What we know:
CATH architecture of the domain at 65-308: 3-Layer(aba) Sandwich
Number of helices: 14
Strand content: 15-25%
Structural class: alpha/beta
Helix content: 25-40%
Largest sheet: 7 strands, mixed
Distance between the termini: 22 Å
CATH class of the domain at 65-308: Alpha Beta
CATH topology of the domain at 65-308: Aspartate Aminotransferase, domain 2
Mean pLDDT: 97
Strand order of the largest sheet: 4-12-11-10-7-5-6
Amino acid sequence: MSEQPENSITQQWIERADKHITTTYGRYPLVAVKGSGCWLWDAEGRKYLDFLAGVAVNNLGHCHPKVVAALQQQAQTLIHCSNYYHIPTQIELAEILCENSFADRVFFCNSGAEANEAAMKLVRKHSAEKYGKERFEVITALASFHGRTIGTISATGQDAVRKGFTPVVPGFKYVPFGDVDAMKEAINGKTCAVMLEPVQGEGGVNVAPPGYLQAVRELCDDNDLLLVFDEVQVGCGRTGKFFAYQHDDVAPDIMTLAKALAGGPPIGAMMAREQVAATFSPGTHGSTFGGNPLITAAAVAAVNTLLNDGVLDNCVEMGAYLRTKLEQLSEKYPFAGEVRGRGLILGLQLDIPGADIVKQAMVQGLLLNCTAGSVLRFVPPLIVTRTEIDTAMEILDGILAGVAA
């Protein structure tokens, strides 16, 4: 499949793309044209079991009927209007998110990077008003990932994402994820906030060690710092709870969401406690498309489905089943190591690069990806079934057997 027949439908699309689209992605030779549930079809009619789910966006699978219906109905009445006016579906979505979390208020935008930018602006403004402009530094974790804007690559604890884009925005420190002593040592008179992912997705599916988030919460409280949780990838049910922080019963002051929030359409959200959110007064931040009627209608449908249709229970059950299957593969193959993650964001650590395994899987009809160079990441839709997991593991088992041979 790496080489398409000359003049194939796929090759024609790829040639057109190569003429006009920027080369910011190392794209695979797959032209996606249709999706349903956990399955994706390409332009040649081939069917794939999708365990990447749009990189943890399609938590309800492709084209979930309730999300599609909400989009269709809203598109017939009002697609967009300005945030100078009140938008009913935006209000409804904010109510649902706040009623099911620590937060009192929500700012809507279009992506995870935008949500994190909003959070970083908010912590700096809050601290400046309370302590003065010299207190502006944010501590983040090594191996973190917070987005692709200049601001969010500055916050990201990976040198690779900053290469070629220096100078970055000043005011960020990076400490090892899970190391409380390192966090404590990094805090000084310039620190205003700590920003962490409860589970680092892009960094290798690293779960916060037991007690770590609680210890960081206490450090923040002791030093009057704001605590920000980036749940762009792991929120909205991905870990088996609506929000990942709920596993540790540690509430942040600010949380960011995106990816799965609307079941596929682009949306971002920054949630905050009342006392902190009040720092944003009219004119201090905004987003033209953020929270528009079309997207928030889809998000209301997606969130209600997550909360009321047994999706979270299925995530817990299928997450445990997938973990067991991956652990069996880990025991079977000497180059396969630790299985880590939570719910249906799981990683299989390899002692070898994982990119070729991902390519082989695609050829055999399974979509997944490799992060941190050698971690196979599994983020299937939360509606995935036992049979679909068995199918995926059978494909992966065959590939690993070939590697072992």
